[in-house]
Amino acid sequence: MSESNSSRSPKLNKMRRQPQQARSQERVKQILDVAEQLFVELGYESTTTRAIAARAGVSVGSLYQFFPDKEAILKALAVQYMQTQYQRFLDLHTPAAVHLPLRSYVDQMIDVFDQFYTDYPGSKAIFEQLLNTITWSKIEQIDDFEYQLIDELARFFQARKSSLSMTKCEQMAMIIIKTTTELLWLSLSSDQALRQDLVTETKLLTWSYLQQYLD
After folding, report:
1. What's this model's pTM, rounded to 2 decimal places?
2. Sequence-distant (≥ 6) Cβ neighbours of residue 163 within 8 angstroms
3. What is the mean pLDDT for each group of 10 consecutive residues in the chain (215 residues)?
4. What is the dihedral of CA 167, 169, 170, 175, to 10 degrees?
5. How many angstroms separate the CA atoms of 113 and 91, rounded?
6. Burial level of 167, CB count in 10 A (0-12/13-18/19+)?
7. What is the per-residue pLDDT for 125?
8. Per 3-state DSSP, what percentage of the chain is helix, strand, and coil (rounded to 5)?
């Protein structure tokens, strides 16, 4: 079902140059980690590249070697998050997963996305800032990650039930991805009790829908 990450991950990170040496890679990681902290603490508009460089312990010139501007840093952070989220989704689809009871698979799938936001609490602020500060025409390629999720899920559905056409599996996958991501995103703005209720209801909704086709 899954192709290698190197062949499927979209090239969205518009860095000025890609770090090759371990030292450069560590410098980029430090810049991104610090930028994430400042974007969450101060907000995107109030954060400057000079402030990022100062806290990261690098010169502004060193920062510009890798990122042409603050927008490129924000995009790189968002892409980093999406790549992590996508990899977790791929890891869920082991050969044994095809034979799991449908309810168990649905629970695991929703938990993968919900756990991501628990493990990376800054991701919500980064995604919100990305959508609020950059025009859609500049970030439309980020949809590629969602299309990859849909494509992977459709292949998984067909592996579970080969009598379903790929067209139908893609339609089902689109409905599931669109619905679950919106509901889980909504849950992040709720208190813990309501968030858990929304996660539970999302699982029930997903399972009830897929039962019609996969059981």
Report:
1. 0.79
2. none
3. 41 50 84 93 92 95 93 90 92 94 97 92 86 64 82 96 97 96 91 94 98 93
4. 130
5. 12
6. exposed
7. 87
8. 80, 0, 20
| Type of residue found at 192 | Q
Q: Classify domain 17-67 by CATH number.
A: 1.10.10.60
CA distance 158 to 153: 9
> What is residue 136's predicted lDDT score, i.e. its pLDDT?
54
| pLDDT score recorded for residue 4 | 39
5-14+77-214: what CATH class?
Answer: mainly alpha
Question: By the 8 A CB rule, do 103 and 207 touch?
Answer: yes
Q: Nearest Cα to 37, choosing from 131, 134, 125, 132?
A: 125
Residue whose C-alpha is closest to residue 78's, from 157, 145, 26: 145
Q: Which residue has the tokens 């070697």?
A: 65
CA distance 96 to 66: 42
**Cα 48 to Cα 34: distance, rounded to the nearest angstrom:** 12
Three-state secondary structure call for residue 101: coil
Distances in whole angstroms, Cα of residue 99 to Cα of each of 92, 176, 203, 209, 214: 13, 19, 18, 18, 11
What is the identity of the amino acid at 70? K
pLDDT at residue 124 in the model: 87
Q: Where are the domains of the chain?
A: 5-14+77-214, 17-67
